Structure formats: C-alpha cells, structure tokens
Hints:
Elements: H1 3-35, H2 38-59, H3 62-85, H4 91-113, E1 122-124, E2 131-135, H5 143-146, H6 149-155, E3 159-162, H7 171-180, E4 185-189, H8 192-204, E5 208-212, H9 219-223, E6 241-251, E7 254-256, E8 259-263, H10 264-270, H11 278-290, E9 298-302, E10 305-310, E11 312-317, E12 339-344, H12 349-358, E13 365-370, E14 373-377, E15 389-394, E16 397-402, E17 405-419, H13 434-442
Parallel strand pairs: 2-3, 2-4, 4-5, 5-17
Antiparallel strand pairs: 1-6, 6-7, 6-17, 8-11, 8-15, 9-10, 9-14, 11-12, 12-13, 14-17, 15-16
Helix pairs in contact: 1-4, 1-13, 2-3, 2-12, 7-8, 10-11
Amino acid sequence: MSRADHSDRARSLARCAVLAAAAAVLVVLLSLLRTGPLIILQGLAGLAVCAVGAWWFLAHRGVVRVLGGALAVGAPAAVLALFLNGGLWFTAPAGVALWAGALACARGALRVDRRPERPAAVRPGRTPRRPVLIMNPASGGGKVVRFGLVERAEALGARVLLLTPGTRTDVEELARKAVAEGADLLGVAGGDGTQALVAAVAAEHDLPFLVISAGTRNHLAMDLGLDRSDPSRCLDALTDGVELRVDLGDVAGRAFVNTVSFGVYAAIVQRPEYRDAKAGTALDALPDLLAGGAGERLDALADGLPVIGQQALLVSNNPYSAADPLEVGRRPRLDGGELGVLGIRVDGAAQAADLAVRGALSPALTVLTSRRVEVRAGAGDDSDSAAASIPVAVDGEALTLPTPVVCTLRPRALRVLVPRNRPGAMDQVPELNWRRIATLALDRPGPGARA
C-alpha cells in the first residue's frame, strides 16, 4: 500500500471516528431532553462510587474490603438499572455502541497513521554450530516438559543444560562456563529474571541470545513478537532466524531486560509467600503499603529531574506504549536507547478515584523517559538515606539494594536471534489521542494524493 493510500485510509477512519463520537454525544443530548440532566449526574456519581469502591477493596481489609468490592461491582449495575428505568432502552445501548465504534475507528486511524517502528539493527541470523540452552523445568508451570523443549532442541543440535527444581543454581556462572567450553549461542527457557542473567553474559561476549517463551508471563518474548502459546516455535530461530540488536538495562551492575520496580510492588515481591500465591499475597499486603505503614516513599532523579514522594516507581528497558498502570502495555521497540519511567503517588481515596477514571491524565501519575534514573528512599524516612537499602524487583526477582540505586541503559548491547516468522510481531495498539484524530479528520489530500 502506497503512502497516499495510507493517508487516505487514516483520514477516512478518523472522520468515521469523529462522526461516531459526535453521534454518541447527540444521543446523550437527546436523552437529556427527555430525562433531564439528573440521570447524567447519577451516572457520573456511579462512576465515582465505583472508583472509590475499588480503592477501598485494595487499601483495606475485612468488612471495608467487602464493602469496597460490593460498591465496585454494584455501582455500574445500579447506574445501568437507572438508565433503563429512566426510559433509555434505546439511547443507552445506541450511545454505547456509537462510542465503541468511535474508539475502534480512532485506534484504527492512529494505527495506520503511525505504523510501528522496527528496530534498525536487523540482519539475517547465522546458524549456530554449538548452541547452549539453559532450561528451567519448573518455569511456567512445567512448559519445558509439556512442550517437549529438551527433545526438540537436542534434535536441532543444541546442548541443553537443565536446572534442578528446588536447588539454587548460579545461572550466570553456568552460562560463563558454557561460553568457555565453546558455545556460540546462549538461550534460556525460563522466566524473565533468568533471561536477564544469561543475556548479560551473551552481551559481554557478543554472542547471539535466544529467548524461549517458557516463563509465566514472558514479557520480553511478547515484545519480541514471539509465540507465547507454543514456546517450541521459538526454537525455529536455530535454523531459520534473523538477528535483532536490542537495548540491555543495568541496575546497580545487574542486567535487566524488562523492568525494575520500586515501592509497593517491590515490597510485595519480597514476601516469601509471593511465589506460591501472587494474587493473594498482593491483596494481603496492599492495605499496609497503600496506607503508608509498610511502604516507603521514594525520591528519584531522572536525568536530573526530581520525582518526589512516589509510592511506586517502575523503570523499564524502553518505554511502554500504554502509560496507564491499570493496563498491560507493550513496548513498541526495544532499541530506542531510553528508559521508561512511571511513578505513582496516591494520597487518598479521591486521588485513587481520579487515577482510576483519568488514567494517564491523572496528576497522581508521572510518565517520562530518561537515560539515567537514580532512586533513593524518600527524604521523610527516618533511616539515613545515604546508607539505607530498599526493596527492588528486577524482572520480578526480589532484591535489596543500597541507595542510591542507579538505572541506566546499554544501547543495542544484546544480539537476539528470533524466528523469521513471529506471530506476535503485529501492529501495536496506539495510545488514544483525540487531538491527532481531529487533525487527521480535518486534513485535506495534498496535490499528489488522490481525492
């Protein structure tokens, strides 16, 4: 498709989005003429009650948590009942359908208008002669055994080193020994924390690195476009692969491939029961952390810019496309040369409700990019901040590091070998930007474009 065709399609989708959004607003206005503004105020009140209920559910225990859950679920249902009882049998569904159509067209226009950037350093991969793959049979609920990864890898000529479940193994030393014995590729079938340790050795020796999506969440595999439903397909890179150059993060001398978390999440990961019951442990810990009892406030410097008093801070290897902490985002690229920084500071139910409703637009959220981030305990802590240590989660692995904790990036330091055909290498869903939609809708074809 030519550039003019892309422009025409983006323009058409943007105009459909604007028309659908205007129609949705018109439906709301017609509803006001019939029912008056009270029902709209009731809807806004229901949204606020839902957000407060969600905050109570997260920040309290016992009866208050049960009440919060009931409010979070019951408020939207009550608003829907009010709308239907007010005679909005047609206008309410019509307004929702029109708004859904507007969102779909808007995201489609932005997707066409801003095609995803591809990493610049892409080249045909060489077939490795002595690949060594480290596999964790316990990772991802036993994916190594379930998908026959050992047998498949050995059939392709790879040497497999199996970790022993329940035994602590120095994975980094295992990788170094493999390099000393002549390995010309290192790979990992395991979690992102293990991936990072071996990736650091591969980068140090300028060897290609193979990611096998056998972990639980496989964030790195997702952003590389790998098949997370069938990790055996990642092994196709050994015979038909291409090579990417991606950035490698560094936190206090330790490599990371995805994120470094401070504050609330890091404190939860430190709990010994977290590995066996992630959701339950998080729900049990959040009330103390969000109330400020067990969680530390954090201060940071991002390229010299102060970010003060944060309850949670996330530093990522390249920024995520979705700045909303309630969404699961993806990184459009892994070779941009910048860290993503996401900070959250919520001081009460009102700010929590604002964050839940406005997302990335809330002042409770700090979103920026940086090449160097320095994190320390907040100035209000009783401990000597120069000597204090803080909990840190590096790619989901629990650590305690002395402050200041410095995060940097090594641009394009890691060679990653991936299959030529990657089912997950699809267009990223762009962040919604109505200003850009309006600009596209009002744009007119240039002299060289088709009318």
